[in-house]
Amino acid sequence: MTKSKLIKTVFSAGALAALALSLSACGSSKNEVTLWNPFTGADGEFFQKIVDNYNETDPEIKIKNVTVPDMYSKINTVMNSNKDKDVPDLTVMHVERVELFQSQDLIDPMTKVLEGQSDIKAENYVKSAWDGGEVDGVRYTVPLDVHSSPMYYNKDLLEKYLPNALDDGAITIDEVNEIAPKAKADGNITYPINVETWTSMAMTTSQGGSIEKDGIPTINTPEMKKTYEALNHFVEIGATQEDGDEPVQAFQTGKSVFLQGGTWDISGLKEIEDLNWGITNTPTFNAAVLSNWTSSHQFGLLKKERTDEKMKAIGEFLDYVRENSEVWAESGQNVASSAIFEAESYKEYPQSFLVSDQKELDSLKIYDFKNNGITQDALGTYARDMIFGRMDISEGLEKAQQQVDDKLKEGK
Q1: 0.85 cut: is pTM over it?
Q2: If you count Cβ atoms within 10 Å of the first and of the last residue's Cβ in the chain, which end, N or C, has fewer?
Q3: Nearest 10 degrees: CA dihedral of 242, 401, 132, 38?
Q4: Residue 16, pLDDT above cutoff 50
Q5: Is the CB of residue 251 less than 8 Å from the CB of residue 241?
Q6: C-alpha span between 100 and 95 (Å, rounded)
């Protein structure tokens, strides 16, 4: 499964060479904290601003920020080298990796880092992001953000076809079905199939279903089946693009009512002239129950020896980020710190609705169990075949569950 990108970042050979050179000098000195991040797109520029702004405060130990293409492969390499000097002092990792890394003994607790940092605590962060950084009662990471897959909508088309649909803050499955024939009559589509794995996970949990039980993936469930039946019905009534057609272009050109995507797509949409768009929640079976697939970038410590001075410096940097990372919202992510997203000025960011009240905060579903990766892989293998009617849904879910079970037996 891949993320849909509305704007592609192109790296020149020179830029790639510079990145390679920076990686060759990743060893850290006692006067700096080496920080690895995976932000190879435009978001990397916003993250660099956070680091630059911190370093301009003239801390005793500065942050050396290194963007690492294919970071998780690089982590695998350095962690197997048994050389502390190759391991970064601090790493930005996805929350889905935390429990997995902990089970593999690849990360250290944040205990020492957080000594004296009394404001880095649960009540100052998005709950789902904060909870994802803890394993067996031990704090391993501190969140930077929450980034979600909500739904974009064409304001003009929605006003034409169902003007009061968002009065309750949600688009229901029934409302998509109601809009579809009206849009089709105009030669438009309603809900193109996009990021379908994340969508199916969110729609399943909106029914009260679960993607895992005690860490074991649960794919073949009644709730998941109902989700795929709903998406397949969209196809049958002509609410989606034709099988094989690219899903994003119809929305960009004003020919689709909705588009499921990621908050990181906002910067691309802003550049499209004459597209009057808004952003709302993932379609749900019940407007009272919202669910949006969400992940979180988190600061963590890959296993290595660190001096007390560096531990203290990392803590000071993390507290600075807690209070001074609004620039990160410009990348389309929601900053996880309540000190930032609760500010009145934060409402200017389109994605801010996802952290605007408790109902929205509760909608941010982070699937951070350690077998999340094989769950998404299995769903991604069969999702489109089920949605577009190439495979019976019951058969597809059985095969997806079997794929997961086989991977677990292999110990991967």
Answers
A1: yes
A2: C
A3: -50
A4: no
A5: no
A6: 10
